[in-house]
Amino acid sequence: MGNNLLAHDHEYLKLSRTSNINLLLLVFLLINVILIDNVMSQNTTRRKNEFKVGVVLDLNLPITQVWLTSMNIALSDFYSSTETSPKRRLVLHVADSNADILDASFAAINLIQDDEVQAIIGPMTSAQAIYMLHLGKKTQIPIISFTATSPSISPSHNPYFIRTTHQDSSQVDAIAAVVKTFQWRQVIPIYEDTEYGNGIIPYLIDAFQNITKVPYRSVLPESANDDRILQELYKLMTMQTRVFVLHMDTALGVRIFEKAKSIGMMGKGYTWIVTDGLGYYLTSFNSSVLDTMQGVIGIRRYVPESSRLSSFRSRWMKKFRKDNRNNEESLDIYGIMAYDTIWLLANAIEKLQRLDSRFVKENVRAKSSHAARLSISQIGPKLLQEISNTKFEGLSGDFGLVDRQLHVNTFHILNVLGGDGVREIGIWTASDGIIKDLSLNGTRKNGNLIPTHDNLYPVIWPGNTIAIPKGWTNPTGENKLRIGVPVRSGYTEFVRVTRNTHSNSAVVDGYCIDVFNAAIGLLPYAVPYEFHPFENANHTAAGSYNDLIYQVYLQNFDAVVGDVTITANRSQYVDFTLPYVEAGASMIVSTRKDFYKEAVIFFLPLEWRLWLTIVAFFVYIGCVIWILEHRGNREFRGGPYPMYQIGTMLSFSFSMLVFAHKEKVLSSPGRFVMILWLFAVFILTTSYTASYSAMLLANRFQPTITDDVNHLIKNRYNVGYKNGSFIEGMLKQMGFDESNLKGYHTSEDLDEAFSKPRQDGGIVAAFDELPYIELLLTKYCDKYTKVGDIFPTGGFGFVFPKGSPLGLDISRTILSVREDKEKMKRIRHAWFEGKRNCSDHDSFGSSNSLSLYSFRYLFVFVGVLSLIPLLLHLQIFLSKNLMILTSPNTSIAQKVVKLVTKFNEEDERRLRYYEYHAGIGPIGSQGT
Question: What element of type H or E holds 862?
Fold first, then answer.
C-alpha cells in the first residue's frame, strides 16, 4: 500500500509539473502574439505614412553617385531638422535607365506598376524626358527633372513635367551681352546634334538678332570621332568668322578644344565662348585640360555662397568618399539641384492633407499596350499643385518655381587663364546686364543697352594676349586686303591712278582714297591693305563700274574703293558701307545770256505777289491816315476839285517810301499808323536793296533748255552720260532710245559734245551725278547749269562682300569721319576747292527773288495794328452821330448819305486845337 501511495504521489507530481510547463508555454505564446501584433501594427502605420518616389538615373555613370549622395543627405537633413515635425516620410526607389531612352521609359513603367510610386525624379537627359513625359501625363504622376535643361521641353505643353533646374535659354542673353560688349559682327555656334544641343539654338539666334550675324552653324554628332572633329574645325578655319559659341557636354567639348589647339585655333585672333553646360565644370578641370582652353570665356549659373552650402560640401565630401572610394567625381551644380529637389518634394508632401496612394485603372481593350494599361494616380493633381506652390531657402538660393520650372537671371562670366586656373571677370544680371560684381547690382540703368569693356575685369584672350580680337580675318588667307580701284581718264579728283616713273608701280590717290584712309585709320585694330587698279595690260580700264563691283562678288577683290554709287541692283551682289558722299543725279544744259532780264532787272528782287501786296498796302495806309486826319487836318480837308484829296492821299502814302511826305499828321492815331508804315517801308527797302545788289553781282545766264525729260524723249534729242556709270541704265529706264545716248569720259569730252551740231552727234543735255556736276560748274561756270528735278541716288559708298564685318566697322568710322568737320574740310579743299577758277555759279532766276512768304508776318503786324485806331475812330464818330443812325422814317441809303456828309464836315474844335499846338494860329474866339 505504501508503495502504491508513493507511486500515486509520484504520478501526481509528474502531472503537476507537466501542467506548469504548459501554462508557461501558453503565457509565452500570448506575449509573442502581442509583440508581433504591435510590430505589425507599427509596420502598417509606417507603410501608411511612406511616400514612394521613383528615381530613374543611369547607374553606370560615376556622376550618378554624386547626385544620389546629395539626395540621401537631403533626406537625412530634412527629417532630422528641428524646424519640421515630419508626418510622412519620402522613400526613394532607384531604377537604372542604362543610358537608353526606351530603358528609361520601361524603368518608369515598372516603378509605377510594381512599386506604385507617386512621383518620379529623372530622367537624366532631355531626350529621355520627352518619352517619359507621356507617362506622367497619362498616369497623372509628376515627372521632376533636375538635369534636363533643353528649352524644347516646355512645362506649359507638358502639365506633369517639373524642371527644378534652369533651362538653357536663360543664358542666351548673357552670351549676347558679351558679344555686344566687344562688338563682334559675326558669331558661329558649335553644338552637338542632340536634343540638348539643338534646343538652345533658336533662342540663341533670337538673342543675336540686331546684335550680330550667324553666317554658319556647326553641328557635330554626339559620337563624333577625332577625324570628324578635325574636318569641321578645318572648315571653320577657312571662314572669315573667328568668334565661336560652344554648346555641348563636357566630354565632347574637351576633345574639341584639344583638337583646336593642335591646329592653331586657340591662338591670337580667335574667341571661344562656352555655355553653362561646359562652363560650370571649368573650375573642376585639371591643368592639362585648362591649358588647351586658355583664353576661353565661360558662362556659368550663379549660385550664392552661404555657410549652409559650405557645410553641405564638407559633409557631402566625407560621405561620398566613404561610400565611393574609387569614384573621383566632385560635387557639381546638379548635385546641388538634386538636394533642393528632394527638399522641394518633401516639403510638398508634408502639405498634403492626406495620402491617397490608390491607383485607378481605366477600361482598356485586352490587346492594349503595356503602357496603355497603366493606372491613374489619385493624389497626382494635388501633389502637382503643392509642388508648384512650394517655396523655401535651398542650397542654390531662394527656391521657387514659376510655371513649374526654376527661373535663373544671374550668371558668372569666367575667363580661363590656362594651366593657372579660372577667374571671374564679371557677372550678368537680367536687370543690369554685365557688371563687375553683385555689389553694383541695381546701380546701372539700361545696362543691357550700353555695354562697355569697363563693366568687365581685363580678359586674357587666346594666345595669351590682352588685345581684344576683332572677330574676323581675311577669308583669302593673305596678309593684306586686295582693294580694287577704278581707272578713269576724267574726274580724277575722286580717284587718280598714276604710274611711278622708276618702278612703274601704280600710285593711287584722290578724294575717295583719302576718306577711306581716314575711316580705316579709326578702326580699333590694324587692317593691312593695298590698292589694285582695275586695269588691262595697257593700263586702261578693264571694264565698267559694274564689272569692278562684280569682282568682289567673285572674290577677286576683298573690297572696292572709289566713286561707286550705291544702287539696289548692285546691293544684290555686294554690301555697301554708309554713304560718305550724299548724291543724286540731275540734268546739265548749256546757258545763254538773258538780255530781257537785264532790261527789267529792277523788278526781279521782289516776286510779283510781293509787289502787288506792297502797292495794296500803300493804298490801304493812305486811306487809313486820310480817314484819321480828314476832319481835323486842313491838309487832308479838300482842294479845288474832289480828286485832289485822292491824289493827296496816294502821294502822301507813296512819298513815305523815300521819307519825303510834305503833309503833316496831327492826330496821335494817325502818327501811330504812320510810324508802323515807316517801319515796314524801312524793312522792305533795305531787303530790296540787298537782293538787287546780289542780282547785279550774279552772272545773268539762263538755261537753253528748260523742258522736262519727257520733252527730250519725245523729240529724240541726244543726251550725254558718263561712260561706265549707272546713268546709262537709268536713262534707258526713263525711255531714252539707245541711239540718242552719247557717252563721254571727261569734262572736256562733254564740252565738245555740247558744241557739236545735232546731226554730228552733238547733245542738248547731259545727265550726271551731283558731285561731278559741281566739278563741271567750277570749270565752266557761265557755260553750263543744272536744271530740272534731282533724281535721288544712294550716294558714294565703299564695296565689301556680303556679310563682311569689316564693312560694318567701316560704316561706323565713316560717321566719325563725316562728323569731323575740320578733317572733311581739309580733304575737300585738297581736291576740290583748289580747282576753282571762277566764282560760284548760280543760275539767275526767280529763286533769287524775295517772296511774299518771307514778309507775311510783317504785313499781318502792320495791317492789324493800323486797323485798331481806324475802328476806334469810326466807333467814336458813329457814337456821336447816333441820332442819324436811329432816326425813324429814313432809309439806309439816306442814313449813309447823311453820315458821309457829316464825316466830310470840319471838326472845328479838333481843327483849332491841332492848329494851336502845331503853332499855326490861335484857338479862336471861343477861348478856353
Answer: helix 856-880
